[in-house]
Amino acid sequence: MRRTRSILLPGLLLLAACGDDPPPPPKPAPPPPAPAPVQGVAPSRVAAVLAPMNRGLALIERYDYGGAATEFAKAVALEPAFYPAQFNLSVALVNNQKDPAVSEKALRAAAALAPKEAAPHFMLGMLLTQGVSPPRTKEAAVAFRRAAELAPGDADAHFRLGLAAKEDGRVEEAEREFTKALDLNPFLGAALYQRGLNRMQLDREEEGKADLGRFKAMETAQRVDKRDIAYGFMGPLGNCIRDLDRWLPPGEPPLRARVVWAEAADAFADPADG
Question: Could you give the CA distance from residue 198 to residue 215 in angstroms, rounded to a whole number?
């Protein structure tokens, strides 16, 4: 069988080459694959996702954390891989202070969606120090340390890491982190105050008193960048994501038209002259 096929095949090729019929047209190329969704949002679903996102942002600015959580949860249900919806949901849950376990689960889900984002780690640290009883200080320090690694220029991440270290008895680490925070934001009064107290524990009493004196003077002059555990006062990493452009598919290009200038007859004539 092998020998017969090797003799016939050239003959077939020769007949095909000598025939009058044109070669068959090439097969049409397969259509290009649809563009992959950017950050988990299909272009056709952007408007549907933005509606509850915008409502949630409006509600959280009015400190309606329960209402904001409801709206952000709708966005998560529509696009589970959309990081801003998952993170904003976790922020609303943490501030609503109803169920720490649910808040922690939401934060860890947000961190898994965007491993290079510092904010979920920062908020996890806040939850573990302020939102659970008893506080889970060692775990919080791990979260704050990760936030500081991912956002080394964020003063609040270093301040919170220093505070967790101080509460855990690691006063030398606390000194380093408070100082980093103040180098980044000299007006971060909480870091200055805590460094003053920490230096007293380090037997650096004069430096500690100087920090506390500076803090008092700044507070009197109302030059302190105040911090609290309430929404909007935890630092930039504790705020919901409002600028969503980097997480959305590119929009349609704006309509452009060529502008043609033409002089109209008597365009500048004064009607009163007629």
Answer: 14
C-alpha 52/C-alpha 271 separation (Å) is 54
Dist CA 94 CA 134 (whole Å): 16
Q: Per 3-state DSSP, what percentage of the chain is helix, strand, and coil (rounded to 5)?
A: 60, 0, 40
| Fold category of 137-237 in CATH | 1.25.40
pLDDT tens-digit series, residues 164-187: 999 999 999 999 999 999 999 999
Q: Which residues contact 181 (CB under 8 A, 6 or more apart)?
A: 155, 156, 158, 159, 162, 188, 191
Per-residue confidence band for 18, with pLDDT thresholds at 50, 70 and 90? very low
Residues 6+ apart with CB under 8 A from 74: 52
Instruction: Give the Cα separation of 122 and 127 in Å (integer).
Output: 9
The more confident residue out of 147 and 29 is 147
The model's pLDDT over 93-132, given as tens digits with 9 standing for 90+, comes to 999 999 999 999 999 999 999 999 999 999 999 999 999 9
Alpha-carbon 56 to chain mean position: 16
**Which of 162, 177, 160, 169 lies closest to 235 in space, CA to CA?**
160
Q: Is the CB of residue 84 less than 8 Å from the CB of residue 53?
A: yes
3-class secondary structure, 228:
coil
The CATH 1.25.40.10 portion of the chain extends over 44-115, 137-237
Mean pLDDT, all residues of the chain? 85
The maximal CA–CA distance of the chain, rounded, in angstroms, is: 105
For domain 44-115, which CATH number applies: 3.90.25.10, 1.10.10.10, 3.20.20.70, 1.25.40.10?
1.25.40.10
* C-alpha distances in Å from residue 253, one per residue of 45, 49, 151, 249, 259: 18, 20, 33, 12, 18
For the beta carbon of residue 48, count every other beta carbon within 10 angstroms: 14
